[in-house]
Design brief:
Blueprint lengths: L2 E4 L2 E4 L6 H12 L23 E4 L2 E5 L6 E5 L1 H19 L27 H11 L31 H4 L10 H9 L10 H13 L7 E6 L7 H16 L3 E6 L18 H5 L8 H5 L3 E2 L5 E3 L13 H11 L5 E6 L6 H9 L2 E7 L2 H16 L3 H5 L2 E5 L10 H9 L4 E5 L3 H4 L11 H18 L1
Parallel strand pairs: 6-10, 6-11, 7-9, 7-10, 11-12, 12-13
Antiparallel strand pairs: 1-2, 3-4, 4-5, 8-9
Helix pairs in contact: 6-16, 7-16, 10-11
Length: about 450
């Protein structure tokens, strides 16, 4: 196609025009422009459905969470304040702490499902957390004050003597520790306190009795007229219980004039025995030197073994016992002596002359009970009636299937003649005759040894 310039305009030869394209462009130009799509206004987002809070009563509620069993356990401020006030009131007589102020009563938010916010913690919860983050108590005590000085006297400035455990340390033992009561107490964050059970109260009483301070050296002798009743086992378990619960030094001495077996119950840490210790007692001036002659059990009981040589001509007599006791009382708080069978040998004479407490062992059988009762008769006849009356009798079940003997009747008989009677049940760990660990005993057996240890220390206190 050729171009022609006419009067300053640009023209195109008609013969060369593409009229189909021109008409098509014209039709497109005459068509109205497509309208813009209408603006779409987005719908407001639906608020997430708030889970329904389930009230458990007494200020407790559950906020359901994701999953079938998910959820959060909540306690209202009012219920938490009531529990804290009740705990402070219970501790006040024992610790002397001032009672915490109780908030004004009002509706319990935890009991009303409509008032609980499941999405985020409310303002009260945030205030509680902020208060706990700061110092919630004043410098003087739970209520922020010091004891007021009497009228007419100048006010006393606080000193380091005011920082006592009762003031600053929470009593973690005020709540129950065992059983269902202890589980509820821990699961509730130490707010639901049902109080300790009777068994736990009894255990606390026994432990407090065992740990009474003792001045000097306390001598305990375990005796039996008849063999095979578990006398050596009783000596070891009593000493191990005292050593583990008291914390001071306790030693068990094998004073059997024949070959004793006390050292068989502990893992041997030395080959020394009582004769090695008596070879040169004047050269021993420290506890570390004595420790070189003893073996120690996992429960901290130290054992001084007897001689294992059956050809030894010199038997352990009263003078030997006194020399050992003179050395032991310098370094130990309690000494448990495992005496031999029989009452007329020389070592027993020295034991009865200096002992503080006797433990008489009887088996849960007729012949064992008669022998033990005859031992009390012998003590009374020999002028040791007071020692027999203050003795503790152990009825020891050395067999799993004892004869049809009424153990309660045995206990009544000995209780009429002595100060205390403890029945020890059969325990497979003790029946093995090997090393003894208190942790391997059954619960009833451990409880019996605790009862015996408390009875022993009670006589001293």
């Amino acid at each position: 196609m050729s171009k022609q310039h006419t009067a300053g305009r640009e023209s195109v030869d008609d013969a060369e025009l593409d009229w189909d394209a021109v008409l098509q462009d014209a039709e497109q130009a005459d068509e109205p422009a497509p309208a813009a799509p209408p603006a779409v206004t987005p719908l407001p987002a639906a608020e997430p459905e708030r889970p329904q809070v389930v009230s458990l009563g007494a200020g407790w509620s559950v906020v359901p969470g994701p999953g079938r069993w998910g959820g959060t356990l909540r306690i209202s401020d009012a219920a938490r304040a009531r529990a804290a006030a009740a705990q402070e009131t219970a501790d006040a007589p024992a610790t002397g702490r001032p009672e915490a102020p109780v908030p004004a009563s009002g509706p319990d938010r935890g009991d009303d499902p409509e008032s609980a916010d499941a999405g985020a913690p409310d303002a009260h919860d945030q205030d509680d957390r902020q208060a706990r983050g700061r110092h919630a108590v004043g410098p003087g005590g739970r209520d922020g004050t010091f004891p007021q000085a009497p009228a007419g006297e100048p006010a006393r400035r606080p000193s380091s003597e005011d920082l006592t455990p009762d003031l600053l340390v929470r009593d973690r033992r005020s709540g129950p520790r065992t059983g269902l009561r202890g589980a509820v107490y821990r699961a509730s964050g130490r707010t639901v306190n049902l109080g300790p059970s009777a068994a736990e109260l009894r255990e606390r009483e026994l432990l407090q009795q065992i740990r009474v301070p003792i001045s000097g050296c306390f001598r305990v002798a375990v005796i039996s007229l008849k063999g095979g009743v578990g006398k050596t086992t009783v000596s070891f378990c009593l000493g191990a219980t005292l050593a583990s619960l008291r914390g001071d030094r306790v030693i068990a001495i094998d004073a059997n004039p024949d070959v004793g077996t006390l050292a068989e119950h502990v893992l041997k840490q030395t080959r020394s025995n009582v004769w090695d210790l008596l070879a040169d007692p004047d050269s021993i001036n420290s506890y570390a030197q004595v420790r070189g002659f003893t073996s120690q059990s996992p429960d901290r009981l130290e054992v001084l073994a007897s001689a294992r040589d059956p050809q030894l001509s010199h038997a352990f007599d009263a003078s030997d016992y006194e020399r050992v006791m003179t050395l032991a009382e310098r370094f130990y708080t309690m000494v448990v002596t495992d005496c031999g069978t029989g009452m007329v040998h020389s070592a027993m004479t020295g034991v009865l002359a200096s002992v503080d407490q006797l433990v008489l062992v009887s088996s849960a059988s007729l012949d064992g009970a008669r022998s033990a009762s005859a031992t009390l008769d012998w003590l009374e006849a020999q002028g040791h009636g007071e020692l027999a009356a203050r003795a503790c009798v152990v009825v020891n079940s050395v067999r799993s299937r004892s004869a049809e003997v009424d153990v309660d009747r045995l206990a009544e008989h000995f209780l009429a003649r002595s100060r205390a009677v403890v029945t020890v049940p059969y325990d497979p760990h003790l029946a093995q005759g090997t090393t003894i660990e208190l942790a391997a005993l059954q619960r009833r057996t451990r409880q019996a040894w605790v009862e015996l240890a408390a009875g022993i220390v009670a006589d001293r206190g």
